[in-house]
């Protein structure tokens, strides 16, 4: 199976800050990488697919980049409503795998 | 809009069985590729099963292979997960999820609210 490793596991930033988190795959997955946001008690929500394509309705402050094994999710200006856990997921292999998540908090 | 509603969760003893259902509306279910994804309490997401629109292709994670069975009823817009030989580490919220069809592998743009399965004596 393809292993997905996210870092950091948690971060705390001030509202308005630029926030970046990373996801690394154990082998090349081209651009087959998706990002989800999960708020407490809720189902995950798709933010970014194919590494950098913004899902309809998702604010433009969210962006994704990367290919091969290294990927990044950036929030350009952190908002209070962005407090959540963010998961990456590879879709290269039919045996799908998620990263362990990055929990984002507001200082 | 697309709606996915799971049912069938609950408390079951170790070694027992349980069947989850997922009712899908607002979209052509017969054209939908579906998966089950679970989340143990306080833990991350784990994909466990995939079924193609016509049920001709099915995949399972190693953690559930041989114990869980995914199936679907396209006539009744429903997805199922039959779980047997349940263990304590199967305790989780179980989500059904529908693929977006973006053509870049399995990307889930629709999720149910989740069904809690607790395996305990």
Notable traits:
heterodimer, A: 107 residues, mainly beta, seven-stranded mixed β-sheet, four-stranded antiparallel β-sheet, 11 strands, B: 121 residues, 50% strand, globular
Structural notes for this entry:
The complex is a heterodimer of chains A (107) and B (121). Chain A is mainly β. In chain A, the strands form two sheets. In chain A, strands 2, 4, 5, 6, 9, 10 and 11 form a seven-stranded mixed beta sheet that branches. Chain A has a four-stranded antiparallel beta sheet with strand order 1-3-8-7, with no helix packed on it. By secondary structure, chain B is mainly β. Helices cover 0% and strands 50% of the residues of chain B. Chain B contains no helices and eleven strands. In chain B, strands 2, 4, 5, 6, 9, 10 and 11 form a seven-stranded mixed beta sheet that branches. Chain B has a four-stranded antiparallel beta sheet with strand order 1-3-8-7, with no helix packed on it. The radius of gyration of chain B is 14 Å and the shape is globular. The relative contact order of chain B is 0.31. The model of chain B has no long low-confidence stretch (mean pLDDT 97).
User: Helix/strand/pairing class of chain A, anyone?
Assistant: mainly beta
Low-pLDDT segments, ≥5 res of chain B: none
Order of helices and strands of chain A: EEEEEEEEEEE
Question: Helical region count of chain A?
Answer: 0
Q: What percent strand of chain A?
A: over 45%
Helix percentage range of chain A: under 10%
- The sequence of SSEs of chain B as H and E is EEEEEEEEEEE
Count of helical stretches of chain B: 0
* Through-space gap between termini of chain B: 40 Å
Mean pLDDT score of chain B: 97
Biggest interface in this structure? A-B, 27 and 22 residues
Task: Give the number of DSSP strands of chain B.
Answer: 11
Spatial gap, N to C terminus of chain A: 37 Å
Low-confidence stretches of chain A: none
Total strands of chain A: 11
Fold blueprint:
The complex is a heterodimer of chains A (107) and B (121).
Chain A (H helix, E strand, L loop, with lengths): L3 E4 L2 E4 L5 E7 L7 E6 L6 E5 L3 E2 L7 E6 L2 E6 L8 E7 L6 E2 L3 E5 L1
Parallel strand pairs in A: 2-11
Antiparallel strand pairs in A: 1-3, 3-8, 4-5, 4-9, 5-6, 7-8, 9-10, 9-11
Chain B lengths: L2 E5 L2 E3 L5 E8 L8 E6 L5 E7 L6 E3 L7 E6 L4 E6 L8 E8 L8 E4 L3 E5 L2
Parallel strand pairs in B: 2-11
Antiparallel strand pairs in B: 1-3, 3-8, 4-5, 4-9, 5-6, 7-8, 9-10, 9-11
């Amino acid at each position: 199976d393809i292993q997905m490793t996210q870092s950091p596991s948690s971060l705390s930033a001030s509202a308005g800050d630029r926030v970046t988190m990373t996801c690394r795959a154990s082998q090349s997955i081209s651009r087959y990488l998706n990002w989800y946001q999960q708020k407490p008690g809720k189902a995950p929500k798709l933010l970014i697919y194919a590494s950098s394509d913004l899902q309809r309705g998702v604010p433009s402050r969210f962006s994704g980049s990367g290919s091969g094994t290294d990927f990044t999710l950036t929030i350009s200006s952190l908002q209070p409503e962005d407090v959540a856990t963010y998961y990456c997921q590879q879709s290269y292999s039919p045996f799908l795998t998620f990263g362990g998540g990055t929990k984002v908090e507001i200082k | 809009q697309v709606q996915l509603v799971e049912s069938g969760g609950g408390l079951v003893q170790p070694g027992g069985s349980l069947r989850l259902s997922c009712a899908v509306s607002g979209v052509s279910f017969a054209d939908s590729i579906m998966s089950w994804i679970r989340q143990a309490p306080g833990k991350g997401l784990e994909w466990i099963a995939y079924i193609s629109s016509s049920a001709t292709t099915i995949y399972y994670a190693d953690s559930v292979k041989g114990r869980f069975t995914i199936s679907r009823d396209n006539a009744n817009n429903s997805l199922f997960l039959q779980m047997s030989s349940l263990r304590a580490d199967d305790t989780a919220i179980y989500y059904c999820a529908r693929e977006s069809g973006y053509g870049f592998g399995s990307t889930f743009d629709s999720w149910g609210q989740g069904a809690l399965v607790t395996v305990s004596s």
